[in-house]
Design brief:
The chain is 43% helix and 16% strand. With 253 residues, it is an alpha/beta fold. The chain has one domain: 3-Layer(aba) Sandwich (Rossmann fold), CATH 3.40.50. Strands 3-2-1-4-5-6-7 form a seven-stranded parallel β-sheet, with helices on both faces. Helix 2 runs parallel beside helix 3 and helix 3 runs parallel beside helix 5. The protein starts with a strand and ends in a 5-residue tail after the last helix. Bound molecules: NADP nicotinamide-adenine-dinucleotide phosphate.
Length: 253
Amino acid sequence: MSTCLIITGAAGELGRIVLSAAANRSDVDCIIATTRSRSLDVPWPKVTCLTGVDLSEDAGARKLAESLDKIPCDNIGLLHCAGAFPATAPLHRTTLATVAAVFAANSLTFLGAAKAVLPRMRRQRSGRLVAFTSHTQEAAYPFMGPFNMSKLALLSAVQTLANENARFGIAINAIAVATLQTETERRIKPTGTYDDWVPVNGLAAYAIDMATTMGIQVNGSEIQYWKYSQSFFGDSIFSRNSIDPEILDPTNG
Ligand SMILES: NC(=O)c1ccc[n+]([C@@H]2O[C@H](COP(=O)([O-])OP(=O)(O)OC[C@H]3O[C@@H](n4cnc5c(N)ncnc54)[C@H](OP(=O)(O)O)[C@@H]3O)[C@@H](O)[C@H]2O)c1
């Protein structure tokens, strides 16, 4: 059996970690890595890099589908790392253009990626798709409305498409993560308790397994990939996200 893994958002923080982990695995034979605005230098011959792929547009989805069509493999997995987290802010200070961009990055890109790979997977009667949601959408944290809503829309897409495609031997699941233990997150959230965050190497290995080797009986699920800690969930949400104290002051309109 020959396995092809597609990684979207491959130039992003998690995408780069997943790409490097997958490129070093002997059970992954080839990789298609897509980026939208950034280019990627990849030292691994088994990686094909597609740049300029905006998955919130039909043209981007088509470009990915055409690239996949050229690859003869019988086991195809998609790891959808594309997404966006805007600055935390109350809705009345957020433009609708920002809201639309967040929905495009978190929800529409998954639909674009799914449109690109599902026809081939349905013909082959097998495939796996994995998307990344967040713990924030269940907690409904304030000041993250557009992000929470877009991840709930993504989860709904995962569940609906899982039901739509189960009879073709395709499994579609989400992994809900909390703040990732990356250098970028540490830089933008200097007041957070870094040790409580999600270690990325273990997450990458788990996500690659889910997209390539795990059975398809788990379908339409959201795996909660984080560990509860009072310092992360109880106390530090506002300080971690650097919410302006003026916004929290109830005497301010
Ligand atoms: N980081 C965290 O702590 C955290 C927490 C919860 C959930 N997550 C989720 O985990 C996933 C990965 O996070 P991350 O930190 O790696 O994010 P990231 O560093 O911001 O990378 C996201 C990537 O998505 C790509 N992207 C955005 N819009 C796109 C579009 N329209 N078409 C194609 N690609 C697009 C960007 O590509 P270009 O750079 O090429 O433009 C970017 O590299 C995301 O879904 C995120 O929401 C992350």
